[in-house]
Amino acid sequence: MHHKKQLHIFWVLLFFLIHPIHTTAHEAIHTIPVPFTPQAPEKNWEQPWQDACEEASVVMVDTLYQNKTLDTQEAQRRILEIFTIKEQYFGASLDESVETLSSLINLFLPWEAQVVYSPTLNEIISELSQNRPVIAPVHGADLHNPHFYSDSVQYHMLVLSGYDPNTKEFITQEPGTQYGLDYRYPYDTIMNAIVNHGQVRGSHLSKAVLFTKNTIKNTGFIDRDADGLSKKQEIFYRTKTYISDTDGDGYSDGLEVTSGFLPTLNEYALEHGSLIKTEKNPKVYLLEKGKKHHIVNEQVFLVNNWKWYNIKTVSERYISSLTDGASIKEQRSH
Ligand SMILES: [Ca+2]
Ligand SMILES: [Ca+2]
């Protein structure tokens, strides 16, 4: 046995003598898992999708920072949501400056952005290496992307989501084509194409990008929709930062929270026959003609063919405002 083992070690050593370990300096590729969507999720390149590159770029970074995923429908919904915010607070326009986009992000989204003028390659790489995607406005035609619907695209925007030091390429999420997932562009191509679309239309005098950060440290206090809830509180209560009355019941988000109602559900509009409970109390009730009827146990719940997923969570304030009706103790006749 002993000899066999020595012989084995001999062969292993011989192997390494014959096949020296490769020491070529392959540098690590760095990628950030930014979810991708084309700016036209359903491949319809009519307006507004033709001009949705900046909305798509913002949505992709937002989805990363919110730890969510994007499918066609969700991407479409989110892109339109950014359009809505833009139109409501910044006026209708199809192409936005980086300054406007930065404001939009800082006022309304659960992360932060900063405009960086004349960024260097190293500064951008450093951001990416710390898992912070960079949103880059570019002169579209300078990218020479064969998949673009037009080779004379001026205003364009994309997300830089990684880099490959071996090939000197950026890895990007390129919303301008359905083939934009992990799309590679040489460093030089991107650095040359970056522009500052700027407040002044057509002025390409300087370059500017948006650095991003998954924090609300500097913007969490903002209450742009003036509903009494800060961005930080709106994230907590899952209300919309750009709509003062998220559930549309006539009461502002802030008023509902301070008075103990749910700002995300119009509770007094719940339908006859709704199943309701509060977050902290396991008791489930059936709502009928403005009265709440306690369903006494699981057996009764199941025998009536009710479904757990249909139970709506309501506020303590609302449920205690309801008169008690007779408890439900058995299968009900129809
Ligand atoms: Ca607010
Ligand atoms: Ca409300």
Could you outline the blueprint of secondary structure elements for this entry?
Blueprint: H1 2-18, E1 30-31, H2 53-65, H3 72-90, H4 98-108, E2 112-117, H5 121-129, E3 134-139, E4 155-164, E5 169-173, E6 183-186, H6 187-193, E7 208-213, H7 231-237, H8 253-258, E8 275-278, E9 285-288, E10 291-294, H9 298-303, E11 311-314, H10 316-321, E12 323-324
Parallel strand pairs: 8-11, 10-12
Antiparallel strand pairs: 1-4, 2-7, 3-4, 3-7, 4-5, 5-6, 8-9, 9-10
Helix pairs in contact: 2-3
One calcium ion binds at residues 245-247, 249, 251, 253, 256, 263.
> In the residues, how many domains can be counted?
2
| CATH superfamily grouping of the largest domain | Cysteine proteinases
What compounds are bound to the protein?
calcium ion
Give the N-to-C terminal Cα separation.
83 Å
Give the overall shape, derived from the CA principal axes. globular
Strand content: 15-25%
Spell out the helices and strands N to C: HEHHHEHEEEEHEHHEEEHEHE
Instruction: Determine and state the CATH class of the largest domain.
Output: Alpha Beta
Tally of extended strands? 12
Radius of gyration: 28 Å
Task: Give the proportion of residues in helices.
Answer: 25-40%
| Classification by helices and strands | alpha+beta
Largest sheet: 7 strands, antiparallel
Give the gist of this structure.
A hairpin with a 4-residue loop joins strand 4 and strand 5.
